[in-house]
Model the fold of this input.
Amino acid sequence: MFTYTELVLAGLIALVTTLVLTYPVKWLSIKLGAVDFPSHRKIHTKVTPRLGGIAIFFGALAGAIYLQPSHPHLPEIFLGAIVILITGILDDRYNIRPVVKLTGQLLAASFLISSGLIIEKLTLPFIGTVELGFISVFVTVLWIVGVTNAINLIDGLDGLATGVTTIALISIFAMAIIDSQILVAYLCISIIGANVGFLFHNFYPAKIYMGDTGSNFLGYMIACVSMLGLFKNIALFSFIIPVIVLAVPIFDTLFAIVRRAYNKENIMMADNKHIHYQLLRAGYSHRTTVLIIYGFSALFGLMAILLSNASIVINLVVTLFLLALFQLFAEMIGIVIGGKQPLLETLRKLVNKGSRNR
Done:
């Protein structure tokens, strides 16, 4: 059984390790030419190193080594993380094709499946536990690849992916403590500490980016810890708890797919119409945009915690509130179907008009 002192020390070890390692990683990124150049689609205006995920990985590893967790699935989780890390490094340096990145993600997923870490069942309201049977492997792969890419796609502003994943992990960590899920708590606190250490370098104005190395690693690890913890929960609405925790990146990704398909665009091609770009166009500053998305992430995380161990009445109340949040979130994103204007852009114009009238 863990003690809170051990958890705090592990988080601090991960934080300090990442904070210190990021300095040589910056030098290595520049030396290898793994840098992010400004372009019409990007916000930054100067060349920025982008191998920060290496520092996050080793920081999280240092925290985990201190805690020395033990679990049958750990070797395969670690092997998958190594594959994801290498794939991310290659992409940050050489901009490899999407199919190559997908291959790396599928290979990592295959390690987990071979170890028996599979989403075998879901708990549905008013129905109970539903065994997935032969589609469990497909659902598992879809979850791992989907979450990994969702975190990758939201990594568009300084400190955004770092903060959003930290908030999601804090939510999962809280539920792990409540349910006494030791391994999940160990992994979460190690990654949280590493993220906080990296945020010192990554918050606006960022001195280094985590790159695909970091976003893919964080997405993969969140997918893993949710499979170890959240999908094992037998509470009433547990089948949507992992989705709620990651609502911001997941729904931003889904809306991006719908938007690109509707506009007859390649769904694999990056664009500048994600939620963070919409908020910037609405007139919010870089820092304020990131903080707004942090706020939404924290709200969804809190709702997930409430849903995880609540009565049916509280579940229904929270669900209604979540539906309202999802609606607002969708309007904020402004899916750009049929030329619709994002809600926040309209609100911004009304505020500005009122100010001029005064």
